[in-house]
Design goal:
Chains A, B: It holds the Pfam family TetR_C_46. Two copies of one chain form a homodimer. By secondary structure, chain A is mostly helical. Chain A is 77% helix and 0% strand. Chain A binds a DNA duplex through helix 1.
Chain lengths: 205, 205
DNA sequence: AAATTGAGCGTACATCTGTGCGCCAATTTA
DNA sequence: TAAATTGGCGCACAGATGTACGCTCAATTT
């Protein structure tokens, strides 16, 4: 059991993380947040921030980690739905868009810091996305008898397209998001179909 | 003819733009530059900055415009080379990587501000990239008899993959860039081949 | 030759930032 | 019950930032 003291600490720590997430938006990136702003939003004194995080970077990396968690939950959800049958691509895109919509700021930090100015951040995001890619590559390799290299290239392309669409979808209204999602499905099918063709071509010689 | 006075003005204006470009790096984005830093690097007083730009945003948009110019020059160069024959995809990727290598900071601002926090910036970059996409879509529509919708989706996918690879290539050594470029070529072929298949499928019913 | 213009500078100011220091009060430990 | 720990606070400071204002002086116009 957690002492009343540790509970309170955990509570304000969450308040800090939540405050940071809540300040994110289309026009506000994590790196543009100041320690004081976050502390203000969390209703603590600026100096109290240090009781929880060494600096803003540490807070940010914590947030990226939570993003990774969301990503993995999303994968699980997608896999469950796919088991019920239907177009894997379509189901995956739908799942992605749903999760994106209910956790916009989690994706904001992932998508933005992926190409941000902090090497540790980029590495952390890359690591999370790498999960995605390798899992996908493994799946394709197994179910479609794809060669490892081709499976890898295919998975990368798919993930690139999905995340890119995600970044674009973040600031769209529902209607436009639907159009985007439909186009994304087509693009993913292109990659899948094309990979299949390339695979056959390689086998026939 | 330009008076000696206008010449001098143009000269320090360029100094400002160049100073800003030169400060960009993997760990330094445009939005993290301060007016004073840029002025310092350009060897002018901070307040003199205003003789040339209303604020940092205006400077940034100027830089994005120059980026658009670079992009269009790249397209021309690629088209010329492609006329000589050979794999269009491979030639395009090679051209892209060359231009990327010799103008890293031009691409930095394009690639970063594409998903940045300033709506005007995002719009400006999107406009430049849209050139790319529509030109490519038109080309595919004409030479491969692709339907407009499919051509558009295909072009978008291609451009997404290319620019994404470009962002990743920016901070790589030459060797890794080569590997990346080869994989990119494969991915682009997937899209091209897949689009072809989808097109045929649509026609056969 | 005289008057006007304008690029560039220095000073100044209000505002914001991160963070060191010492205190308090409540919880935890001894 | 006494002592130690620690989350949270206020104060204070140095440094950086954007920008308003007014000056200078060379180029340009009249």
């Amino acid at each position: 059991m957690m002492g009343i003291r540790a509970q309170q600490k955990e509570k304000t720590r969450r308040a800090l993380v939540d405050a940071a997430f809540n300040q994110l938006s289309a026009e506000r990136s994590f790196s543009s947040l100041s320690l004081r702003e976050v502390a203000r939003e969390a209703n603590i004194a600026p100096t109290s921030f240090y009781r929880h995080f060494k600096d803003m970077n540490e807070l940010g990396l914590t947030m990226v980690d939570e993003g990774g968690l969301t990503l993995r939950q999303m994968m699980r959800k997608g896999r469950q739905r796919a088991e019920a049958g239907g177009s894997v691509i379509r189901i995956s895109v739908e799942t992605f868009m749903e999760v994106l919509e209910s956790n916009p700021n989690v994706f904001r930090i992932l998508l933005h810091e992926r190409s941000g100015t902090s090497a540790p951040f980029r590495a952390a995001v890359a690591r999370e996305i790498e999960h995605f890619i390798s899992e996908l590559a493994h799946y394709t390799e197994a179910t479609a008898r794809r060669s490892p290299e081709l499976a890898r290239a295919q998975a990368e392309a798919l993930v690139t397209l999905v995340f890119n669409a995600g970044a674009a979808a973040l600031d769209m209204k529902r209607v436009d998001r639907k159009i985007l999602a439909d186009r994304l499905v087509i693009q993913l099918r292109m990659v899948a179909k094309g990979a299949e063709c390339l695979q056959q071509k390689m086998e026939n010689r």
